[in-house]
Amino acid sequence: MTARTIRLPEGFHLHELEAIDSTNDEAKRLADKGAQSGALVLARTQTSGRGRRGRAWSSPVGNLYSSLLLRPTCSLAEAARLTFLIAVSMAEAVEMVTGNQVRPDCKWPNDLMVNGRKICGILLESASNQGSATDYLVIGTGVNVAFAPDDAERPATSLSALGAPVSVDELVSTYLARIAHWLPIWEDKGFGPVREAWLSRGYGIGQPVVARLTERELSGTFVGLDDDGSLVLREDSGTEHRIGAGEVFFATGSE
Predict the structure, then answer these.
(1) Per-position DSSP letters for 20-42, written without gaps between them
(2) Cα Rg for the chain, rounded, in angstroms?
(3) pTM as predicted
(4) Is 11 left (phi over 0), alpha (psi -120 to 50) or beta?
(5) What pLDDT digit, counting tens, does each position of 175-191 carry?
(6) Average pLDDT of 97-126?
(7) Contacts of residue 231, Cβ cutoff 8 Å, sequence gap at least 6
């Protein structure tokens, strides 16, 4: 295995692998064995990578596959909003390592987009402790650094295709540094500052959106995020809906 050159902020611990079934699964195994918050599983490839709703995640060598273990002292509902912190951290990291050449947008609830194409997916999985309290969170991130799948459900792109090839190690190092920046803000001031940073990159705000929920479909305009991270959809009639989970589609052409 080629030696990696990853800078770890204080409190982070690297678990480096050549190949693994899934970085999220490995992080959960570590959590069940008592691993501390800040453990990062990083693999060059995955044999059973997955995204949201169990979708297969293509994992060729050259892209970024990581999962971060966190043990926040809050409810599961509050901890789930850390997805937005991770999205902001990765978006900022991509922008920084590409010298501002690529500025990702944050698509609700957990993707990063560039020019209407997906470049990063985020998968959060959690375990509770004594009811609603959080035992741990595992937050997986997959970034198309060198390659983008050509058979994805929605159009995808990569940093290489955008003319901004970067080192995976440099991207991981910068990503962790941004998490280390945002976590104390979250702990001190709550979701508000993270929400504002996310909205500054919000994909599709002010645009038509279709939300496919379990039992119905809603159409309207994406007007922002509620204080709990729910997507706010406003119908033409003026009625607003807070959507906490579901699939959303924007009328942006390529997305």
Answers:
(1) ES-HHHHHHHHHHTTPPTTEEEE
(2) 18
(3) 0.92
(4) left
(5) 999 999 999 999 999 99
(6) 95
(7) 108, 109, 209, 211, 222, 225, 242, 243, 248
